[in-house]
Write a structure and sequence with these properties.
single chain, 616 residues, mainly alpha, Growth Hormone, Chain: A, 3 domains, seven-stranded mixed sheet, 66% helix
């Protein structure tokens, strides 16, 4: 159960072709979109340019409403690798048409291509997220999503920079546009060739009947998703993230020109900091979560977004406006680096926030509707982005609020919305407490856990009854655990809150517990293939434990499930007990390991009982 290194996926056929296909598609999407917007801004009058830019934005968002839910159905009905190859082949022809439109300045063709590229992305998105659980192991999902998110932003960043630079310094027919067109075409062709190496991903629902009405289908999937609170709230949180991102991202050009008083290269620099930050935060998720699929780091990302937004708003509000400053002139001004640092911090926090949400959606959705649920997420993202864009236009134009004030307001609203979200789904807080227990309250290491099966029933018997121990096990082991806890243990307020909202309810024993029901509950859990973990009471002479031992013997005598001793070393701070001050630490270092599996009769062995059940 050694920790997985996400970068090894870049050398696997089951991931690398998909990663390159995704990155190339994002690159072409953004290089064309930004080239078109730059050309509209610099070649037309301000009034006409603003009208066409707004029209272009509408053209780009519309396909997400029209085609996302249909794309999700297609991805569940047909082999996803074939859909990817068809999309990548279509991308070549779309790009060639786009090159013609750019070079000959044909706005009708340009808008058609923009619509087609947005349609391409709207169809590709649920396919690429739904295919990952089919090609990756469960413990690889967090890292795989982090890499995919990093690839998306790498393609977005490089496409934005190249498209802006090449289109910004050319006229129709000049070599710069031809080079831009050649770049797009080569990337599209290479993307198609790479997509042919994506392994097959058989359809999970080949008999699915396609509902071509996007409204009725979206409503049906929304009702289905609402029955799964963790996925439903993950979608809402994800959509809220894109709402917040749109607020900050869209204002960067105006912020740079009107508040900072800087030139176009500063816009590119700020966007680079944001994109690099998101990519870095996405990659950090694997390490922070240890590959576990958890909500635990989402509140950390949410808090980071609020702090970064406040810092960015306050810093820009106090910034002494320059006058058309170059990049070097801007960097010499007070507060310049603070703006870039807060922007990067905003991106890092966003990456930490968004990757676990996509992973939760993939992991907790039935495979037969996974792509459809992910397509609903696309629709919600587009809806939230559209709504906040209209609200921001009203706030900035009608209310006359300044951009720094808008940033501060959005940061405060983000804090309030996240608090409400975590209140509605306490699992966010439960996972955070579990994460903190293993990263702040103890330094946890582990080894020799291969004895614990990845599937099927097993009973772990823990040698420690410190209340922190179950939280460390939840954070360390990859599988959901059903704990068998003493009643006095479970009644502790924090432990009670955590297990009340943990996705696997514990089995609690004590003097008042019905013995027959207790035994039946254990037998049923083992028959259903659950991983269980027993925490004995502190005193084996306790009558409740004597009864529990008898019931365990009854429950386990006919089972073939392995019984595995589990050792947690360090929770009692042995260094302090041995008066070795040089080894003493306020944060204990806890090592978790598993012994060799035993049989039911060994539970009553005197040596085993003394080691695991006779406590101080």
């Amino acid at each position: 159960m050694a920790q997985h290194n996400q970068f090894t996926l870049l050398f696997k056929r089951r991931f690398l072709p998909l990663f390159l296909s995704l990155t190339s598609a994002t690159f072409n999407d953004n290089i064309f979109k930004n080239s078109l917007l730059v050309m509209l801004a610099f070649r037309l009058s301000e009034a006409k340019a603003d009208a066409l830019i707004n029209l272009a934005t509408g053209f780009y968002i519309l396909p997400y409403f029209l085609f996302s839910v249909t794309a999700g159905q297609l991805a569940d009905k047909y082999d996803k690798s074939q859909i990817i190859r068809i999309l990548k082949l279509a991308e070549i022809f779309i790009v060639i048409l786009g090159v013609y439109g750019l070079i000959y300045n044909n706005q009708a063709i340009n808008f058609i291509v923009l619509f087609l590229l947005a349609t391409h992305t709207a169809i590709f998105s649920p396919v690429r997220y739904a295919i990952l659980p089919q090609h990756l192991k469960r413990r690889e999902l967090m890292g795989g999503n982090g890499l995919a998110q990093m690839g998306s932003f790498a393609g977005m960043l490089s496409g934005t920079i190249i498209g802006t630079l090449l289109a910004g310094y050319t006229n129709p027919g000049q070599p710069g546009l031809k080079e831009l067109g050649a770049t797009m075409t080569v990337v599209a062709v290479l993307g198609y060739l790479v997509s042919r190496r994506v392994p097959p991903a058989p359809a999970p629902a080949p008999d699915l009947r396609i509902d071509w009405n996007p409204v009725s289908q979206a409503w049906r999937i929304l009702q289905l998703t609402a029955k799964n609170p963790s996925v439903f709230y993950a979608i809402l949180a994800c959509s809220w993230f894109w709402l917040v991102s749109a607020t900050y991202l869209v204002q960067v050009p105006s912020l740079t020109k009107n508040v900072l008083g800087a030139s176009e290269p500063v816009i590119t620099t700020i966007l680079c900091c944001l994109s690099i930050g998101v990519a870095a935060g996405s990659l950090m998720c694997e390490t922070l979560s240890r590959g576990r699929i958890t909500f635990g780091i989402v509140p950390i990302g949410a808090l980071g977004i609020t702090l970064a937004g406040l810092g960015l708003g306050i810093t820009t509000a106090q910034f002494q406006t320059l006058s058309g400053a170059s990049l070097s002139e801007y960097l010499r001004s007070d507060g310049a680096y603070a703006v870039l640092i807060y922007t990067a911090f905003l991106g890092i926090s966003g990456g930490i926030f968004i990757v676990p949400l996509y992973t939760i959606m993939q992991d907790r959705t039935d495979r037969t509707v996974r792509a459809q649920v992910l397509s609903l997420n696309n629709v919600m993202n587009a809806l939230f982005t559209t709504v906040i864009t209209l609200i921001n236009i009203f706030i900035l134009d009608a209310v006359k609020i300044a951009i720094p004030q808008l940033f501060i307001l959005m940061a405060l609203i983000n804090f309030a919305v996240m608090a409400l979200l975590f209140y509605k789904l306490p699992e966010f807080i439960v996972h955070l407490l579990v994460w903190l227990s293993s990263h702040l309250f103890a330094r946890t290491t582990y080894g020799q856990l291969k004895q614990i099966p990845q599937k099927g029933a097993a009973l772990l018997i823990c040698n420690d009854t410190v209340r922190l121990a179950p939280l460390l096990l939840i954070d360390t082991l990859q599988r959901p655990i059903r704990f068998i806890l003493p009643q006095c243990f479970y009644q502790a307020p924090l432990i009670h809150f955590i297990f009340k909202n943990y996705n696997v309810a514990p089995i609690v024993y004590g003097p008042s517990r019905d013995k027959a029901k207790f035994s039946a509950e254990i037998c049923q859990a083992l028959e259903e293939g659950e991983l269980m973990c027993l925490f004995p009471t502190q005193d084996r002479r306790n009558s409740a434990f004597i009864d529990i031992e008898k019931q365990l013997k009854i429950a386990l005598k006919d089972t073939s499930a392995p019984i595995i001793p589990l050792v947690l070393q360090g929770l009692h701070n042995e260094a302090s007990e041995n008066h070795d001050s040089s080894r003493f630490s306020l944060i204990p270092k806890v090592h978790i390991s598993a012994g060799q599996p035993i049989t039911a009769k060994d539970i009553n062995d005197s040596t085993f009982a003394k080691k695991y059940f006779n406590k101080r």
